[in-house]
Known about the structure:
Blueprint: H1 2-12, H2 21-37, H3 46-56, H4 62-75, H5 84-100, H6 108-131
Helix pairs in contact: 1-2
Amino acid sequence: MKGHLLEVELLSLDPRNYDRIQDFLTKYNDLLLQLKGCGIDKSKEESRQVLSIMSKLGPEYSVFVSTFHSVRLATGKTYTMPSLKEFMESLIFEQDKLIGMGKIKPPKAHALVVHDGSHNKSHRSDSNQKNQ
């Protein structure tokens, strides 16, 4: 019964409900581990998982999804689906590109880190000027 509930949660997991794609992927991987603990191993279904995640991405990822499918169709039988890990890494990279292009807003935690970094730089510059 617990395995069934975890599968339902995995299927209903939506990346648009998370500030960062990494948070979604962490939850996704956590559910996969919990399922494995219940005797349900999804490792043979990685292609299906990749396609499932892509189908849930918001419109800001439309170029990423379109490119993925175009390459898959263009290469035909020679196409090799990426592993779930490789796909997740490329999705994180895509998120970073979208943030850099201003297509999506950086997560709040990311914005604080950037803010703190610039604050430290100006503080260091002030300290360096005082020491000279």
